[in-house]
Specification:
Number of strands: 6
Distance between the termini: 62 Å
Oligomer: single chain
Number of helices: 22
Largest sheet: 6 strands, mixed
Helix content: 55-70%
Structural class: alpha/beta
């Protein structure tokens, strides 16, 4: 019965992911930046540092590039590896959970994974994070299979999987370090000399692969000052002080479970994970806990050395392990404790379930840059300018490049102080399209409308197509403005006036 219910859960989780892919939403900024590298470079070019401050495993880049070459550069094909990884994560999690938990605990774990908003979202993005999660769980599952069978063939299979995984996922390096240490400790505890030798040999194979990968790809990422600065929130501020390190670890885990895992009361969720691990230890499952958390020492060390951040989507691979531990809470010795555990999981899962239901009915859209760029392509006439607002540049260059469109200028905001010191010149002369396709969390919530109001005060609006967080508008900047006073009503201190630089 439990297996049948798990099958239903996995089907539902797969359908939720496919539902999001079928929305066919436009690429958002980071996806568009990565897509340009994949589409515009050949396989050899993808070994070089990526443009746009991007970083991704070379194997993942080659995989997506292969789909682009074989089919086309549509969003669906480029997001397909993430979708398959997101779907495969469900049966792999079930297989792992059944080996370390009872049937009810495994069912709870796979349900939490199936309904995790973050795991669903990144299953339909042109990013490697869903593949990180799949490979992390698969490698831990492989270690359990090696322990069960104690055969050379099983270890060779895990060794081969590890060699492939590090090319497809940077997070796999951290997981393999933990898995290797776990297998070695198990072999030493069993005093199995032959197994110790084969595990050490496997470690040498993985280390050699990692050294090659570092020289080919990883070195350029660890030396990238932009990425290191961008990831700064994921690094502990004082790793040599245990109290500060533990606080950072708690806060980072809570942030991960809340913003990516989607759990209600994320700090309670962290406490529940710690409780689940403690209860498992009390039940004599110390080795299972050690394996599920085997990635943690490597992750903390890498973050302390500012080589890999423990924050947000880059730590997505941690989420399935936390959810498996949460699933173990239903394995209680009495009905009363089981009911309390189920109530706690229900409280934590209320947020994810609500989010997933809402997303299934009304999927979240990214800034819809594709339709507005298509509108510009249909209406563009020679001699017209194309002004692209700053954060819309990446999607415009991706979609516009496919339609032979090129920006003639980039618009940006000036603050009130800068406007007073440097009065803005006219954005353009004659007719020009203005493209906007991004709303940043730090920007005004009505940023698009503020921009339109300023444009209406500068020229005559001739055409407008609005989509979710995006628009394309045609203006005649030599004609009387649509609303001369509009900008005075809409301006903010950070969006006081516009200026243009050449494209």
């Amino acid at each position: 019965m439990t297996t049948a219910l798990a099958g239903v859960v996995m089907v539902v989780g797969s359908l939720l992911r496919i539902r999001q892919l079928l929305v066919s939403r436009s690429l958002w900024v980071d996806e568009a930046l990565l897509a340009r590298n994949i589409v515009e470079r050949d396989f050899g070019g993808l070994l070089e540092p990526l443009d746009g401050g991007q970083g991704a495993p070379v194997g993942y880049l080659w995989l997506v590039r292969s789909l682009v070459v074989a089919f086309d550069a549509s969003e669906q094909w480029m997001r397909l590896p993430s979708l398959l990884a997101g779907i495969l994560l469900l049966p792999v999690t079930w297989a792992l959970a059944r080996r370390v938990l009872t049937a009810p605990g495994a069912l709870a774990a796979v349900t939490l994974v199936a309904l995790s908003p973050g795991l669903i979202r990144y299953s339909v993005e042109l990013k490697q994070y869903a593949l990180d999660a799949l490979l992390a769980v698969a490698l831990v599952l492989g270690a359990l299979v090696v322990e069960e069978r104690r055969s050379g063939r099983a270890l060779v299979g895990l060794a081969a999987a590890g060699v492939v995984a590090v090319w497809l996922s940077h997070a796999a390096v951290l997981v393999l370090a933990g898995v290797g240490a776990y297998l070695l400790l198990r072999a030493v505890a069993a005093r199995d000399a032959a197994h110790i030798r084969t595990v050490l040999l496997t470690g040498v194979v993985w280390a050699t692969t990692l050294a090659i990968l570092y020289l080919v790809s990883l070195r350029q990422l660890t030396e990238n000052d932009f990425l290191t600065s961008y990831w700064q929130a994921g690094f502990p501020d004082d790793p040599l002080r245990p109290d500060r390190l533990l606080r950072w670890l708690w806060v980072s885990t809570a942030d991960l479970l809340g913003t990516v895992g989607g759990l209600s009361l994320p700090h309670v969720g962290v406490g529940a994970v710690v409780l689940a691990a403690a209860l498992a230890l009390a039940r004599g499952r110390g080795w299972h806990v050690a394996l599920l958390l085997a990635f943690l020492p490597g992750l903390v060390l890498a973050a302390s050395l500012q080589q890999y951040p423990f924050r947000g989507r880059l730590a997505l691979f941690v989420v399935p392990f936390a959810l498996v531990l949460l699933g173990s809470l239903v394995e209680q010795p009495s009905r009363a404790r089981t009911a309390a555990a189920v109530a706690l999981l229900g409280l934590l899962a209320a947020g994810p379930v609500g989010t997933v239901v809402e997303e299934a009915v009304h999927p979240t859209l990214f800034p819809e840059s594709r339709p507005v760029v298509e509108h510009v392509a249909r209406g563009y006439e020679p001699g017209q300018g194309i002004l692209v607002h700053r954060l819309a540049v990446a999607p415009f260059e991706f979609y516009g490049g496919q339609r032979s469109l090129e920006a003639t200028g980039i618009t940006r905001w000036r603050s009130t102080a800068r406007c007073a010191a440097e009065p803005p010149e006219p954005l353009a002369t004659g007719e020009a399209w203005v493209v906007f396709a991004y709303t940043h969390s730090a920007s005004p919530p009505d940023e698009a409308q503020i921009l339109l109001s300023q444009l209406d005060a500068m020229g005559r609006r001739l055409d407008l197509l609005e989509r979710h967080d995006a628009f394309a508008a045609l203006y005649d900047f030599d004609a009387p403005p649509t609303d001369p006073d509009a900008s005075d009503r809409r301006t903010t201190p950070s969006t006081a006036c516009l200026f243009t630089r050449s494209g």
